[in-house]
């Protein structure tokens, strides 16, 4: 199980600066943090690395040189760092969207718990987490219209389209490729990789047919049966999926306790 979470940044004057950690009592020495920084610096690109340093098993995600944040997940020796990559990309995006006034700081305990359960989530729940990301939704919408787009064009378009903050396009594409929604390929004669839409995501409400067919056996009192069926029919006759409603649905799906109850 994960032991703790550290958010840090590199300062050219002061070196490594720890911005947040959870729980507060965890301690990672400067030498280890410097090793994490140096390993990321070697590639210079956003992405995840994993390191074994003594008794510490570390999965670290670097947001890239534009923002320069490092999100470190401290793991037990028996944990597989790769199992947390999608979760690290997810919480990194949340942190980057909440940098103003350090709004992410009170979120850190919740983000740690969200990340801790990530390997136990099923594919539907991981798709729901992906859908929560506004950048992912923008990419899918663009690809629905065009089917394929060059990576360089997509990066320029996203920076122009998403004016509210930093866009980690590499992290977004890694997650979409893992979820088998897009495929990234090089084509001879093209100056940039091409991104193909190969699957799509759909979020919608559907009536519970088994309950509608036999509400009594599911515990509904007989005096409410007709009213229940009428209300369900009226609701779905006028139902149209909206992004706001869909986000409400996925908020339920990404909560493990609620999902298990459903």
Describe this structure in words.
The chain is of the alpha+beta class. The protein has three domains: 4-120, Beta-Lactamase (2-Layer Sandwich), CATH 3.30.450; 127-197, Winged helix-like DNA-binding domain superfamily/Winged helix DNA-binding domain (Arc Repressor Mutant, subunit A, Orthogonal Bundle); 205-245. Helices cover 44% and strands 18% of the residues. The chain is built from eleven helices and eight strands. β4 (56-62) and β5 (69-75) form a beta hairpin. α2 (85-96) packs antiparallel against α3 and α4 packs across α10 (243-253). The two termini are 25 Å apart.
Task: Compose a concise summary of this entry.
With 262 residues, the chain is α+β, with helices and mostly antiparallel strands. 44% of the residues lie in helices and 18% in strands. The strands form two sheets. Strands 2-1-5-4-3 form a five-stranded antiparallel beta sheet. It has a three-stranded antiparallel beta sheet with strand order 6-8-7.
Q: What structural class do you assign from the helix and strand content? A: alpha+beta
Q: Can you tell me the residue ranges where pLDDT is under 50 for at least 5 consecutive residues?
A: none
Q: Which CATH class of the largest domain?
A: Alpha Beta
Let me know the CATH homologous superfamily of the largest domain. Longin domain
Q: Please count the helical segments.
A: 11
What oligomeric assembly is this protein in? single chain
H and E string: EEHEEEHHHHEHHEEHHHH
Number of discrete domains: 3
Mean pLDDT: 90
Remind me, CATH topology of the largest domain? Beta-Lactamase
Q: Give the DSSP E fraction (strand runs of 2 or more residues).
A: 15-25%
Enumerate the strands of the largest sheet in spatial order, edge to edge or round the barrel.
Answer: 2-1-5-4-3
End-to-end span in angstroms? 25 Å
The level of helicity is: 40-55%
The shape, in one word, is globular
């Amino acid at each position: 199980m994960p032991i703790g979470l550290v958010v840090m940044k590199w300062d050219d004057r002061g070196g490594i600066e720890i911005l947040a950690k959870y729980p507060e009592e965890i301690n990672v020495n400067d030498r280890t943090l410097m090793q994490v920084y140096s390993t990321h610096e070697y590639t210079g690109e956003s992405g995840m690395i994993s390191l074994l340093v003594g008794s510490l098993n570390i999965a670290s995600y670097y947001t890239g040189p534009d923002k320069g944040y490092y999100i470190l997940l401290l793991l037990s020796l028996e944990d597989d760092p790769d199992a947390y990559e999608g979760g690290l990309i997810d919480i990194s995006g949340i942190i980057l969207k909440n940098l103003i006034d350090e709004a992410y700081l009170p979120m850190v305990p919740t983000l740690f718990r969200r990340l801790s359960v990530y390997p136990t989530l099923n594919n539907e729940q991981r798709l729901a987490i992906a859908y929560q990301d506004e950048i992912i939704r923008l990419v899918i919408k663009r690809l629905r219209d065009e089917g394929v787009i060059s990576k360089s064009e997509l990066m320029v378009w996203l920076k122009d389209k998403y004016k509210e903050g930093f866009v980690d396009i590499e992290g977004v594409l890694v997650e979409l490729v893992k979820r088998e929604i897009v495929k990234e390929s090089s084509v001879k004669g093209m100056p940039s990789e091409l991104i193909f839409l190969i699957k799509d995501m759909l979020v919608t409400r559907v009536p519970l047919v088994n309950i509608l067919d036999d509400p009594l056996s599911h515990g509904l009192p007989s005096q409410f049966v007709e009213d229940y069926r009428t209300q369900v029919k009226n609701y779905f006759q006028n139902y149209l999926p909206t992004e706001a409603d869909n986000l409400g649905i996925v908020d339920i799906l990404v909560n493990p306790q609620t999902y298990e109850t459903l």
